[in-house]
Amino acid sequence: MRTGPDEISKDDDENDLAARSRTLRGALTRYFQRRLPNTHEADDLVQEVFLRIVRRGDSQDLDQFEGYVFQTAASVIKDRFRRRRTRKSDSHVVFEPDLHGQSDVSPEQTLLAREALKSTTRAIMAMPERTRTIFVLRRLEGLSHPEIARRLGVSLSTVEKHIQRAAKQLLSLGGDSHDL
Predict the structure, then answer these.
(1) SS3 of 58, please?
(2) Distance, CA of 87 to CA of 103 (rounded, Å)
(3) Integer Cα distance of 50 and 56 in angstroms
(4) Cα–Cα separations (whole angstroms), residue 121 to 16, 54, 170, 173
(5) Is CB count within 10 Å lower at the N or C end of the chain?
(6) 125 sits in which H/E element
(7) Separation of first and last alpha carbons in the chain
């Protein structure tokens, strides 16, 4: 709908932009393919160029539309390289289903593991405070017996006694006392 001879309707502007973009799409795709190591990204970048032009609006006002398109393309490619550098994209590891794929853990195994974890947590929380503290320092913090004794200000034999006490409690659940 035209309201005056100098005003162009939104529909006319969109139709004109669509026609102009069709004529430049091939050249723009080749422009990106020559400048990118991965040519599969070219179509996405072409789309980004036209998206920026649409957001700008009033593409009719551009005297040198083709020059503006390629200037926008240069800006898009600079932004892409800047984003990749900032996000360290070249350091990312590609997901490979054979290496990183699904594990063969069944729902039953998951449920059993969760129940064992709850049971072990309850057993640890039921330990006397000193025994629990020594157990946590050994098994979760990875401290040696002498380090625990030094940190808590107790003898080495006290640490060993509490480790044995914790092991007995966990073994009564069917747990593993390896390297306590």
Answers:
(1) coil
(2) 29
(3) 10
(4) 68, 59, 10, 11
(5) N
(6) helix 107-126
(7) 83
What is the pLDDT, as a whole number, of residue 58? 66
The answer to whether 148 and 119 have CB atoms below 8 angstroms apart is: no
What's phi and psi for 21, nearest 5 deg? -65, -35
Q: What share of the chain is helix, strand, coil (3-state, %, to 5)?
A: 75, 0, 25
Please report the pLDDT score of residue 128 as a whole number: 94
| ∠ Cα 110 142 155 (to 5°) | 130
Backbone angles phi and psi of 142, in degrees to 5: 75, 20
- What single letter denotes the amino acid at residue 48? E
Q: Which amino acid is at 134?
A: I
Amino acid at 142: G
